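Good day; I would like, with your permission, to put a structural problem before you. A protein sequence and the structure tokens that stand for its backbone fold form the material at issue. The record follows directly beneath this note:
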Amino acid sequence: MSDIINLKQFKKRKARATKEVEADANRILFGRTKAEKSFDKNQNDKQVRFLDQNRLEPRSSVSSADEKE
């Protein structure tokens, strides 16, 4: 004979196991460690600073008119 099991407990265990498998998949797809997040933020800040420091400003129309005279 087989063991008698409580159907409610069985369903809850199965649902927990399914959620855990889905959570593991989401951790792989979407999860990043704090170190990865801070590294990416620092890299982005560094790129923004570099671009701001090396920005080429357009010449104003007043200065170009002075050059023609």
